[in-house]
Fold:
Amino acid sequence: MTGVLWNLGAFIVALGILVAVHEFGHFWVARRNGVKVERFSIGFGKPIWRRLGKDGTEYVVAMIPLGGYVKMLDGRVDEISPEQRHQAFDSKSVWARMAIVVAGPMANFLFAVFAFWLMFMIGVPAVKPVLNEVTPGSPAAQGGLAPGMEIVAIDGRSVRTWEDVNFALIGRLGDVQTRFEVQDGYGQRREYRIPLEQWQFNPDETSPINALGLVPVGPELTLTVAEVVSGGPAAQAGVQAGDTLLAVDGAPLGHWSQVVELIQASPELPMELLVQRAGQNVALTLTPERREDRERVIGYAGLAPEVLPVAEQYRFELSYGPLAAIGAGIKRTWELTVLTFQMIGKLLTGIVSVDNLSGPISIAKGAGVSAEFGLVYFLGFLALVSVNLGIINLLPLPVLDGGHLLFYLVEAVTGRPVPEKIQEIGFKIGAALLLMLMGLALFNDFARL
Structure:
């Protein structure tokens, strides 16, 4: 329950910030073009806080934190006096109206640059993209990659961290192959071509990195038990924190992954454990609990291993000075923008499954997790969602900013506004499509739960 409340709180904070940024973009440009703004609202529904500003605008925080709006004086929906006519939105030139509409998404992109700038100024703990293992038979193995290699570029794009590798790989979904430039332990660089015809992954179960067969150098899971869940099967068997697992059913253990595989493969089946405790070998009998996980039955023990941190030579802090961080923020925002458009294109062409769409529940979970890790990760999350919010609002659906922009572009070219009848039909179609997408995203969220 605490986790749910934490995720919900982080989600409300994140969405409140991003909505405020988006609506402020509309508000600021509208005011600069002489349009009277009657209400600036964060959220919908019943107001829980309101204040009338000296500028005549009513500022509101409303009950439902799932969006916001800027209500401008508009002769199409309001009866306005002749002396107020010059302050109405619909009285402005088509170019001014276009500027007001596009200002919201542009504010989201600028905020992403700011969030990344701040994140890079603070510094992000990072790990060099060095291979610990390459999964046999995987695309990476077929391409010739081997343990110990450091990835320095993918398709000509320089990478410094595993996050860079992840972003580069996501953009390759549906491609035939990708080019890896790697550096070995002697500083020699070579290029490898990795086949991607058979490369597929479910983002809910694995990452594109692991699906490609890359096992990064990272924290090492030991065979020493760090935590035993109270009342769980392991606790009932007598396993204690500090025990070192030596063997299962007489077979010696070498890696924690072996423990996981054996336990998951043995629901409700007794297992003979040999552990070392205070220099003495102790024999125990563990019967994993039966659990269902994604339509399969697995065993569960309630154990957690001690984790050794990443070796010092692979760790560094990705940080920049004030000026360099601006360039890094702009570059990261641009990369995210391009990647998002690529994913939308591949979604429309069927290369990427609609099962990958995420809704507010997934966003809330992401907000909570990133907030738990710390400020720099929460800033990265805000930047990511801000870019996506900006792009989604630019889609040419009449209920979104992009739809309004499309109508105004037609007006700018033809010299006359789009007939209200056509606009009304467009709004209905756009609303239906948007509701379908939202419904699908919510369905995916609940399926993941």
Notes: Residues 220 and 308 are 5 Å apart (CA to CA).
